[in-house]
Specification:
The chain is an alpha+beta fold. It is built from eleven helices and 15 strands. Bound molecules: zinc ion.
């Protein structure tokens, strides 16, 4: 297989300039940039004079005073392009060998946040999540996302979730690249229809399970996380499937949303966690009159004396009723379980009774 290093091995300095000119966001490519004058950094995003592109070894060379967690860093044109656009080496290689064209969203400046730099502003966050969403592909039968969901929710049969996509994504932790995983990308949408963030579930590349992710110093990292939030998340949900006949369900996790659908036939939106569930707002214009609340039946927290999942679900029910909606509370039968557990039990019992009938 062709390697990126083979392709650029005999490049002239002008070819490196051309690479940088092709991929870097246009607003960085000023006269001063090409003359090697200090300017803002296309990687860490902030500052007005921390970055210099000088191509001094003829390899698209650059230096930034802050790019290494606030310390200086130098690199070549490949690193500059990959880190400023968020492309992986493989994606850049595919562009250079003509295997793929550059996703249009990558033309936007998408500074990747490094430790020690200021947070991204709202529009940069929005570009970053829109870029991820655009770069991911729709789910299809037998892909890693579908296989994972079918393993968590056996027998799963549901409308194709338009709010979920699949991507191959680098997993970064505190500036360290941990690995690259098949990743379920879920679009988190506010009541007014705007995307506020993307939630990511990193999957094991070999088997239908969540990835086991461990940093170089042995820290176990979460396979499920939100990306940056371009907008406050309160009120939103992952719109897994369209409401039916004015009825909609809400649950905490993605898998629970599918499990509730399998158990009750109610199209259900995951809110990702119990706090966001308690803040869910029914979007106007979809004709929703009834909200089914699929609570996680958490163990009682000894400090508060309540089951957190149940308490937040009841809080939501109370507010929605005050807003004039009909609510239906659903609680798993066994304490310490959620609807994903309950569906698996129901499914296994059905399988056993089928086998018994067949025997
Ligand atoms: Zn920088």
């Amino acid at each position: 297989m062709t390697k990126l290093s083979d392709i650029v091995k005999n490049w002239t300095p002008a070819q490196w300039d051309a690479l940088v000119a092709q991929f870097l966001p246009a607003d960085f490519l000023t006269d001063a940039f090409w003359r090697g004058r200090p300017g803002p950094c296309p990687i860490c995003g902030d500052g007005h004079d921390r970055f210099t592109y000088d191509n001094k070894r003829g390899r698209g060379d650059w230096v930034c005073r802050k790019c290494n967690a606030g310390s200086p860093k130098a690199g070549d044109g490949i690193e500059l392009v990959c880190r400023s656009t968020g492309m992986s080496y493989v994606e850049l290689l595919n562009c250079l060998t003509g295997k793929s064209s550059m996703p249009t969203a990558l033309h936007a400046a998408v500074p990747i946040r490094q430790p020690g730099t200021k947070p991204l502003d709202t529009s940069a966050k929005m570009r970053r999540i829109e870029k991820q969403w655009a770069a991911a592909s729709s789910l299809s039968h037998g892909d890693a996302a579908t296989q994972y969901l079918a393993a968590r929710v056996p027998g799963l049969c549901a409308p194709r979730p338009v709010a979920l996509r699949l991507a191959s994504q680098d997993y970064w932790h505190e500036g360290e690249l941990i690995g690259r995983y098949p990743t379920i990308v879920a679009q988190f949408t506010l009541p007014d229809g705007r995307m506020a963030t993307v939630h990511r579930t990193s999957l094991d590349p070999q088997q239908p399970a969540k990835a086991c992710i461990v940093s170089s110093d042995g820290e176990v990292l979460p396979p499920k996380r939100n990306d940056v939030s371009a907008l406050p998340l309160d009120g939103g949900a992952v719109r897994l499937m369209p409401p039916r006949d004015g009825e909609l369900g809400v649950a905490e996790g993605l898998e629970n949303g599918f499990a509730a659908y399998m158990l009750f036939g109610v199209p259900t939106w995951p809110c990702l966690n119990r706090v966001l569930l308690s803040k869910f707002v029914v979007p106007p214009g979809l004709g929703i009159h009834t909200v089914h609340i699929f609570a996680d039946f958490d163990q009682i927290d000894p400090r508060t004396g309540v089951s957190p999942g149940m308490a937040d679900a009841l809080k939501l029910a109370k507010r929605l009723r005050a807003e004039g909606f009909k609510t239906v509370m659903h609680r798993p039968k066994i304490r310490g379980t959620d609807f994903c557990d309950e569906w698996r039990t129901v499914y296994e019992l059905r399988q056993m009774s089928r086998q018994a009938v067949a025997a």
